[in-house]
Amino acid sequence: MIYLKLIWSYLKIGLFGFGGGYAMLALIENEIVGSGWITEKMFTDIVAISQMTPGPIGINSATYIGYVAPQQASPMFASPLWGILGSIICTLAVVLPSALLVFYTSHLIRRHKDSVAVKGIFMGLRPVVVGLIASAALLLMNSSNFGTDTRDVLWSIALCVASFCVVQFTKIHPIAVIVGAGICGYFIF
Prior knowledge:
Number of strands: 0
Helix content: over 70%
Radius of gyration: 19 Å
Distance between the termini: 41 Å
Order of helices and strands: HHHHHHHHH
Number of helices: 9
Largest sheet: none
Low-confidence stretches: none
Shape: globular
Strand content: under 5%
């Protein structure tokens, strides 16, 4: 049944997804797109929508995929109620492992925060998290986001670099940059 598969997939994502939502993207893509529940294009759209909505990207994408995947798996689940059930199941499944780990380990970490072993573990996790976030960036650099035409790719890279520079080197609010990039994209593409 689709719901049991979704629970299993999101329990794995919640348990092994270190470093936040962006670090989880490769794992989410492998589990969800690899299973055929959604297309790569739908996945990149979900990432974009999850970035624009309040809340963590991993939870937002779990909620949306939980709503869409049952409908994609079988026409029997076309009712919105099945989608709502899938949203609830996926959201709880992705949050549960982290909540249990935090609840169980928080007092141990607090008690042993000055321990050489604990400091070593966190020092070892930092480069892994950076690598997972870089992997997410590479994952999103596909034809669905950048197009296949050389002109589209160059314009996409130019908008990306310009947006980064504006946010990094000016006091312009990032939301204004997002709106401006959207307007530029409308006229360019």
